[in-house]
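Issue 218. Parser rejects a valid record. Input:
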Amino acid sequence: MDSQSAQLSTKIARIGSTVMNDFLKIPVHTEQTPTTPLPRGAAITISGGWKGSITISSSDELSRRIAAAMFRKEDDSVDARDITDALTELTNIIAGNIKAILPGPSQLSLPVTLETVPEASQGSLLVQLGDNKAGHLLICLQPGLH
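Output the parser choked on:
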């Protein structure tokens, strides 16, 4: 990874950690990138000065805790719809913050729920965060064709 990618990766990790720690009150730390995609996710496309997409994916366990924190429910009382809504909103929040550090001006699409989270393509920047309960959150910044 070159120094520019390393700096961007650090900024993205900071954005993800801040959202998880401060907004959702779920402490996370940066981890090694997984070899397989996580099961739940959502994506946003960025167009304009920077073109590409941001995908946020999460383990089932952490997805449930994110939904519970976002909607102020107990972990065992969230349903599949709560989890979907929480992940698309989390994707919107994190992507909006990442957009601010990319070349602009740019626009975000609406977040789209992913039935299957694709593997990252060549040139993608991956940042994985983990919590203290073996949950994982993967942020993938994937440049598009310019």
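Fixed in the parser; the record now loads. The chain has a mean pLDDT of 90.
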